[in-house]
Structures are given as C-alpha cells and as structure tokens.
Design brief:
- Helix 3 (106-115) links the parallel strand 5 (94-99) and strand 6.
- Helix 6 (172-184) runs parallel beside helix 8 (217-233).
- The protein is built from 15 helices and 17 strands.
- The longest helix is centred in the N-terminal third of the chain and has 20 residues, at 31-50.
- It folds into two domains: 7-258, tm_1862 like domain (pyruvate-formate lyase- activating enzyme, Alpha-Beta Horseshoe); 305-378, Arc Repressor Mutant, subunit A (Orthogonal Bundle), CATH 1.10.10.920.
- By secondary structure, it is α/β, with parallel strands linked by helices.
- The chain has helices spanning 31-50, 73-84, 106-115, 129-134, 141-154, 172-184, 202-208, 217-233, 252-258, 285-289, 306-317, 327-332, 337-349, 364-368, 370-377; strands at 7-12, 14-15, 27-28, 60-65, 94-99, 119-125, 158-165, 189-194, 237-240, 243-245, 264-266, 271-274, 277-281, 299-303, 324-325, 353-356, 359-362.
- It binds iron/sulfur cluster.
C-alpha cells in the first residue's frame, strides 16, 4: 500500500517585481539566492523523504508562488527534476505550474511539458494595459497572448487563466468584454478573484491617502455575478467560489485541499496539513537558505484538537458550491454533531446555507458571505 502524502506543493518565493495589491510572500528574483533556495529545497525534500512523508506516486503536484516562471531555464529544470528524480509520475498525476506573462518563454514551456507538467496557470489578471499598469503588473496584454501561444505550442494540455474582477476603471461593459476575451482563448479553467485591498500593500496605502479608490462591495458582487452568468453560458461550471471549469477540468490539487485532504508544502511560507498537524515554513528566503538548526527549516508548528481539525476542514469544504455532506467530518469528530447542526440551522435561518437531504450548500447570499459561514463553523 502506498504511504506518504499524495498532494505536494512547492512555493517559489521570487517575482520580477511587486504587484501593488499583493500580500503573498515573495522577493525580487536574483539568480544567486534562487540557486541557494533550490539547494535548501532539495534538502527539505530529502528530510521529508527520511520521515516517510513522501509518496512513490503523487496524485497532484503544484508549483506556485511567487512566480515560478521567473526562474531561469536551468533552475526550472532543476526544480522539475526534484519531482521527476523522486517520484513515479503517471498520466493521472496532475502537475500544475503557475506562470506569468513576460517571464514564461517558449523554451521554458517546452521544458515544463517535457518534464511532465500537464497544467499551466497563467496570471492574466486583465485585458487592459492601463489596468495592468495600475495594478503594478510588469507585463502587457500582448504578452498574455504570446504566453498562451507558447503554452499551446509546447503541447501543455490544460490551461487556467487568473482574472481580477472589479478593478476601478473597468465598468460593466468593459468587464463583459474582458470575460469575452478570456472565453475566446478557450481556457480549460478560470479563476476570478475580487481585488482585495490587503493591509500593508501599496494599494492599501494608496487607498488610505485617497490616491486610489477601491470598487464598492456592490460593484464587486455585480462583477462576480456577471462572470458567473457569462462563464456558465460558455460551458464553465462554477465549482468553487472563485473557480470555474469545463467538464473534467477542475483543479484536483485545490479540490483535495477543499475536500479536506492532507498536503505537504515546501519552500519559504509554504503550509502543510498532515492529520492533526499543521506547519508553515517561515516566510524568509534568508532563513530558509541559512543552515538550519535542526533537520527542518524554521517553521511554525501546531497540533490541533480533533474537533478544531474537523471544523477547519468543514469550513474549507463549504467553499465547494456543489455542497457537502457532514458524514466525513462527523467520522473525524463524532462529538461535534450537535454544535455543527446548531450552527448550520442558524445559517439556514439566515438564508446563507440550504439543505437538500443530507447535502448542505451555500446559497447565493452565502456565497457572498462565505467568510461569515466559515467563522460560524470554526
Ligand atoms: S506576480 Fe503574483 S506573487 Fe508576484 S507580486 Fe504579483 S501577485 Fe504577488
């Protein structure tokens, strides 16, 4: 029988600059620190193998960031070999790499395809050059089209496009045109996110000093509603609050996360969930690349109670719009039935969740207030 955690994530903590809205951990790309990062990453994989955490045949691999495509082609090759030298990667293994226009080249796309990558996620964000500049992106719309041509020419079969909704300056008609541009590119999957103003970002500072004004909540909701309708009309099923897929094209890595599966994360800032244990590596390339005091990189580690673990998994699972049944969560924490039923019945009275037989799901109002639903279940 296979042992080990079958969903693996690698965080590449480098970008070619900083987007004004971004709250993820990343550093500006430089070749020497990136080489040291790859040395440390190899070490972290080795230690996970020694602890029996790695599988022989992973089900999903996900290289995210940051911007993995900012690595040079030799570094990208080294990163892929971390997987191909260790694991038996089959046609059933979903292997995703996040990329950005401007740093993904035809050569890199070919290298990824030859390594076995079968899914690429491209950070398009907008089909307007002024909006891309407003967001602090370092690429143009032309480069979006070039990257997609490179991905297709390389023969990578599955493509996700990321889009940001409700950017100031994009009115309802312009947003519909954005969606039509995206649909015309025939991606297999689309992720559509609100532009969240995260504390500490340049955008938050600009908003505070009146130099930039965020869209209203009402506008955000209308833009997401438009996306849901237009994408449904084009054959994309909204299976998670921010994610839409053609039949058979849901992201299996993220699904595993939402459905309560265990996963291992590698690299600075990467998080892991194994049984009741949670750990997150310190978000620092410097400390990740400095010789570790123990066999492990600096990290925050905690062990949850059975009830907290099950509640956390349940709260994430509610993001799936087909809904959930309580049974798998009750199997983890049978004593929590009364507490969850009380919370769910209150949410149902408030119109945020609905129930059909054993299946619970978010209502339209619940989708808009998903954080409230999650808090009630935690
Ligand atoms: S490319 Fe992505 S990770 Fe990098 S700064 Fe922009 S949003 Fe953040």
């Amino acid at each position: 029988m296979q042992t080990g955690v079958v969903h693996l994530y690698v965080h590449v903590p480098f970008c070619d600059g900083a987007c004004r809205y971004c709250a993820f951990y990343s550093e500006r790309f430089d070749a020497a620190p990136a080489d040291r990062y790859l040395d440390a990453l190899t070490h972290e994989f080795h230690e996970a193998g020694n602890r029996g955490l790695l599988p022989k045949v992973p089900r999903t691999l996900y290289i995210g960031g940051g911007t993995p495509s900012v690595l040079d082609i030799h570094q990208l090759d080294r990163l892929c070999r971390l997987f191909t030298d260790r694991f038996h990667i089959t046609r059933e293994t979903e292997w995703t790499v996040e990329t950005n226009p401007g740093s993904l080249t035809r050569d890199k796309a070919v290298l990824l395809q030859q390594a076995g990558v079968n899914r690429v996620s491209l950070g398009v964000q907008s089909f307007s050059d002024p909006v891309l500049r407003q967001l602090g992106r370092r690429h143009t719309v032309r480069q979006v089209y070039d990257s997609i041509a490179d991905i297709r020419a390389a023969g990578i079969p599955s493509l996700n496009l990321d889009l940001i909704a409700a950017v100031p300056g994009i009115d309802a008609a312009a947003w519909r045109r954005h969606l039509d541009h995206a649909i015309a590119l025939v991606p297999d999957h689309l992720s559509v996110y609100d532009l969240t103003v995260e504390p500490g970002t340049p955008l938050a500072r600009a908003a505070r000093t009146g130099k930039w004004q965020a869209a209203t909540v009402d506008t955000e909701l209308r833009r997401i509603h438009t996306a849901a309708l237009r994408l449904a009309g084009a054959g994309y099923h909204r299976y998670e609050i921010s994610n839409y897929a053609r039949p058979g094209q849901r992201c299996r890595h993220n699904l595993a996360f939402w459905q309560g599966g265990d996963y291992l994360g590698f690299g600075p800032a990467a998080a892991s969930r194994v049984g009741l244990d949670r750990w997150t590596n310190r978000p620092s390339v410097k400390s990740y690349c400095t010789p570790w005091k123990s066999d492990l990189p600096p990290r925050r580690f905690e062990t949850l109670s059975t009830e907290t673990d099950a509640s956390e998994r349940l709260a994430f699972a509610f993001r799936l719009l087909d809904g959930i049944t309580l049974r798998p969560f009750l199997d983890r924490a049978p004593g929590h039935r009364a507490r969850w039923m009380k919370a769910l019945n209150t949410l149902r009275k408030d119109g945020l969740v609905s129930r059909q037989g054993p299946r619970w799901k978010l209502t339209d109002a619940g989708i808009r207030l998903a954080d409230t639903v999650a808090s009630a279940l935690l």
